[in-house]
User: Fold these one by one.
Assistant:
Number 1:
Amino acid sequence: MIANTPAPPYYAVIFSSQRTADDQGYGQAAKRMLELAREQPGFLGVESAREDGLGITVSYWKSEAAILAWKQQAEHRAVREQGRATWYAAFHTRVCKVERAYAFQT
């Protein structure tokens, strides 16, 4: 589903990942992280896609401070460590400021 974001400016965190072969609780942890992110002040929405082990998740935030607070959230921090140890062969995180946004919808 496409996130319904406000008028810019706002921020996007792009998380690109290559998964390992075993699930080992990944699905449950991903669902919990989405629930938890939605509770965070400044969270605006999320979009995610995965195919053949490659995943791209874009989360949208009101401010850089909100992104930092999410990064420091204790449960999220623990799950990130588990991701490094178990679920991901590689990942990249990119933080961007959205200055313009366009939409089309039928």
Note: Strands lie at 10-19, 43-51, 54-61, 88-98.
Number 2:
Amino acid sequence: MKNSDKFISGLVKNFKDKGFRLTAPRKAILDLLVNTNEHPSVEEICFDVHKSYPSIGITTVYRTLDLLVSWGLVHKFDFGEGKARYELIEHPKGIGHHHHLICTSCKKIINYTDFIDKEFNYIPKVETRLSKKYNFKIQNHLIEFYGVCDNCM
């Protein structure tokens, strides 16, 4: 069984455990998220899924993504372009925790995963300090860097 198949079967269980059915359109949305390294918008997801399920509406896509976000399975991002973008939090292809470089010119999004040792030591220290200072339990963090990519320079 491939990693993506195991991942999807885990999501099926997640849906059932929460009292929901994993319908074919919902599974198609998940399949799209599993098989991309991009950060698709609702419109892009709807367009792609519509090829296999012409009856799917944008409302179904929104509702499915809202469920996945509320369950902590999908991140919803606003990269300043007036529309939300989505990606799996835990990706079966092993992308893992990462940050983003966003080009303010062409809107290209680069996943930044090549952390250095200093970052691995520094970020947990910042989280600990902020948690204590504000009596706040940090569960995750997102870092986004905005600038201009090499193609737009």
Note: The domain at 1-92 is CATH 1.10.10.10 (Arc Repressor Mutant, subunit A).
